[in-house]
């Protein structure tokens, strides 16, 4: 078994606050959740395939995957997340690091990295996590990884009215230039890496994952001030999700979405 690499303490401290479980279950976070679920339901092998949900947090996605009939195992470095996910019906959870998985070669049908790449500022670590996913998944299996878009923090701070604060503006502008966010309470996030939309293709390629396909998750809709009203109205929500699906691969919109999902077969 490979020794797990160090996990940044400020990132651990952030997730110990317990915010992650509710982030995708309410408010505008529902758009990211529903769009991620929509894409995964189209690209994953049929149930009861074995899905390794690496960095799966409290099991927000593992829960519906298990309900869909998948054999799901969550791997997460946060003890509270492991405990929460392990209580979900049909979900197994254990502690672990995306860069050093305990699983045998080719032992999973799909590996999800729906959070780890956010918090690996060094490119070598991100490629290492993707290479581990490729090692663990069977030939022909699916690897799917989520990334945060380069301008996401700037957009969020403008929407929240905090961009006018010089200290906030300096930090988020820097993240848009270089990708690295030094998060704090004013920005409502922790240390993170934000991808340029083309950058992830090189990281997938260096990990041996070729012919990757990118999906813009929220599209432009994550920028809308009244997005909650659309998501609360079933009729308007269906229209919005339909447009988001039809425009998910549009190259000019990839960097506008707050999050992007990249998928490849091993």
From TrEMBL:
Residues 52-144 form the Methyltransferase type domain. One of its GO terms (molecular function) is 3-demethylubiquinol 3-O-methyltransferase activity. It comes from the Bacteria. InterPro entries: Methyltransf_11, SAM-dependent_MTases_sf. Its EC number is 2.1.1.222, 2.1.1.64. It is an enzyme of class 2 (transferase). Keywords: Methyltransferase, S-adenosyl-L-methionine, Transferase. It holds the Pfam family Methyltransf_11. GO terms for biological process: methylation. This is Class I SAM-dependent methyltransferase.
């Amino acid at each position: 078994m490979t020794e797990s690499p160090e996990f940044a303490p400020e990132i651990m401290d952030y997730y110990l606050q317990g915010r992650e479980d509710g982030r995708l279950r309410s408010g505008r976070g529902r758009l990211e959740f529903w769009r991620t679920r929509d894409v995964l339901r189209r690209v994953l092998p049929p149930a009861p395939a074995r899905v390794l949900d690496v960095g799966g947090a409290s099991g927000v996605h593992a829960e519906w995957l298990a309900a869909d009939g998948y054999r799901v195992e969550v791997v997460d470095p946060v003890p509270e997340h492991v405990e929460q996910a392990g209580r979900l019906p049909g979900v197994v959870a254990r502690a672990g690091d995306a860069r050093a998985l305990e699983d045998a070669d080719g032992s999973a049908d799909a590996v999800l990295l729906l959070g780890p790449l956010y918090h690996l500022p060094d490119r070598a670590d991100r490629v290492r996590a993707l290479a581990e996913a490729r090692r663990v998944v069977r030939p022909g299996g699916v690897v799917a990884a989520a990334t945060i878009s380069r301008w996401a923090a700037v957009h969020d701070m403008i929407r929240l009215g905090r961009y006018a604060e010089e200290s906030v503006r300096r930090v988020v502008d820097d993240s848009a230039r270089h990708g690295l966010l030094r998060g704090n309470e004013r920005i409502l996030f922790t240390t993170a890496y934000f991808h340029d939309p083309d950058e992830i293709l090189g990281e997938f390629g260096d990990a041996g994952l070729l012919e990757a396909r990118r999906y813009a998750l929220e599209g432009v809709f994550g920028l809308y001030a009244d997005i909650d009203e659309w998501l609360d109205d079933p009729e308007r929500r269906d229209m919005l999700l339909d447009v988001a699906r039809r425009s998910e691969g549009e190259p000019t919109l990839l960097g506008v979405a707050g999050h992007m999902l990249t998928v490849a077969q091993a």
